Amino acid sequence: AIMNLLESRKERNHVNIFFSIIVEWDHAPTKDEVVSTVNEIRAKSKNLKYEIIFIGPRPCMFEQLPPEIILWIDTDAQGITDSITNAINQTEGEFIVLLKSGTALPDSWLKWMHYYFKWHPDAGAVKAI
Question: What stretches of 1-129 adopt beta strand conformation (E)?
Answer without folding.
Answer: 18-24, 49-55, 69-73, 95-100
